[in-house]
Design goal:
By secondary structure, this protein is α+β, with helices and mostly antiparallel strands. The chain has a single domain, classed as 3-Layer(aba) Sandwich (Aminopeptidase). Helix content is 35%, strand content 26%. It contains 5 helices and 5 strands. A 5-stranded mixed β-sheet has the order 1-2-3-4-5, sandwiched between helices. Helix 2 packs across helix 3. The protein is globular and about 40 Å long. The termini are far apart.
């Protein structure tokens, strides 16, 4: 997988002072937990670290946005292949600190993912969003994403 760093962030995001970096160490994953916990509130720190470690073995990567010298957002993603969508980038997690929303950080993270997808020659960027999260659905639609399916889950 190609490596993109903050120099690959969208130019307008860098102009606003938004830098995007990949987490590599446990220290970085721990530092990002308060932000991710805003999206994945059912996870304890230990559960989060365990899930991240397992997912990384399957290609999961976690990036964070740094704005005004603070961690303000995160995006977790992976490159995958399937019969329906071909070679694609799947966004598992996207969250911006609730005190920093509507500043362009979420868009910067999504545009970063799109740039990574293009570098990886993916056919699509995909994600799933909770059915009741209509405000965030509008955000994705403003970025050009369209609703294509429902996601179903069964706990076993």
């Amino acid at each position: 997988m190609k490596a993109l760093d903050s120099d690959e962030s969208p130019e307008w995001a860098r102009t606003l002072g938004i830098e995007i970096h990949e987490c590599h160490s446990e220290k970085e994953f721990r530092a990002l937990f308060p932000i991710v916990h805003q999206l994945r509130s059912s996870l304890s720190l230990d559960e989060y670290l365990t899930h991240v470690e397992r997912a990384r073995h399957c290609g999961y990567r976690l990036f964070y946005a740094n704005f005004e010298e603070s961690i303000t957002g995160a995006i977790g993603l992976r490159i995958q292949d399937d019969l329906c969508w071909g070679h694609n980038l799947y966004v598992d997690d996207l969250v911006v600190d609730e005190t920093q929303r509507c500043l362009g950080i979420g868009e910067a993270l999504m545009r970063f993912a799109e740039k990574l997808a293009a570098a990886e020659k993916c056919d699509y960027v995909r994600l799933a969003s909770g059915i009741d999260r209509t405000r965030v659905h509008g955000f994705y639609e403003r970025l050009g994403y369209r609703k294509t399916s429902f996601t179903f889950a069964l706990r076993v």
